[in-house]
Amino acid sequence: MDASSPISLQQTPHQDYSVSExxxxxxxxxxxxxxMEAAALRTPSFKEDTYFISHxxxxxxxxxxxxxxxxxxxxxSDATSECSMWGIPLxxxxxxxxxxxxxxxxxxxxxxxxxxxxxxxxxxxRKEFGADDIVExxxxxxxxxxxxxxxxxxxxxxxxxxxxxYGVFKDKEMYxxxxxxxxxxxxxxxxxxxxLERGIRLLxxxxxxxxxxxxxxxxxxxxxxxxxxxxxxxxxxxxxxxxEMVARKIxxxxxxxxxxxxxxxxxxxxxxTKSKFVISKEGNVAETLYKLVF
Length: 294
Fold this sequence. Notes:
Strand 3 and strand 4 form a beta hairpin. Helix 2 (58-75) crosses helix 3, helix 3 packs across helix 4 and helix 6 (182-200) packs across helix 7. The longest helix is centred in the middle third of the chain and has 19 residues, at 182-200. This protein is α/β, with parallel strands linked by helices. The strands form 2 sheets. Strands 3-4-5-6-7 form a 5-stranded mixed beta sheet. It has helices at residues 31-41, 58-75, 95-107, 112-129, 172-179, 182-200, 224-241, 258-265, 271-274, 285-292, and strands at residues 84-85, 88-89, 149-154, 160-165, 213-218, 246-254, 277-281. It is 43% helix and 12% strand. It has 10 helices and 7 strands.
């Protein structure tokens, strides 16, 4: 990888965390160690969920049709503008609409009523939040662009890659300027949604196409309090309104205290979301990214 790469791949010396055989106490793995080992065992090749109707189980096809029917009853045939996402009318009964509906169904294990409730709340949120037009807004975060959260390139399967690196907030002045009060936090969350919306514009929304992104989050130098304040809201907002938009969530430069932080935001994540996590401690960054991204 060349020097212009968005994330440094400089490795740190290997540390030996093994326990001596002479140790009188049995070795008990920490939560984060177990999480890392589980991630290491996972195959590096991501297989996109199928969006071909012919590949669905009969029960899944039935759920998709039921969701279409319920959505039509809720919004009516003349509500095309109110019932659309990313410029795609959900009542159009075409393959792009089906891709979005299947994302909501998968997020709720094909429980039709739960999927409908999630979809309707998302449509309401997008209208209230102004998500359709947010990409064009100037939110005044020029200093964070290309540094904190940004889209950059594609992985080997063609998924757009979003990089996140919050280490700049170890600077107290920067932290206070961005997260100093509730209004500032809301504005940051809006900017973070803007970055994600830019990535979603790169997706195909069609069977056989690229329908999700890769998230790479660098935890190096990330202040713990920043995670406590912002992460719960970001994760909750994304999970509620952007179902199945992330193919993999790769954490790099994971510090020793990650297990504590993970316990804070873990309740906000579904099991399906957590299954997409890949954990890479310091020293394994290059290997992880080359295996999963480059």
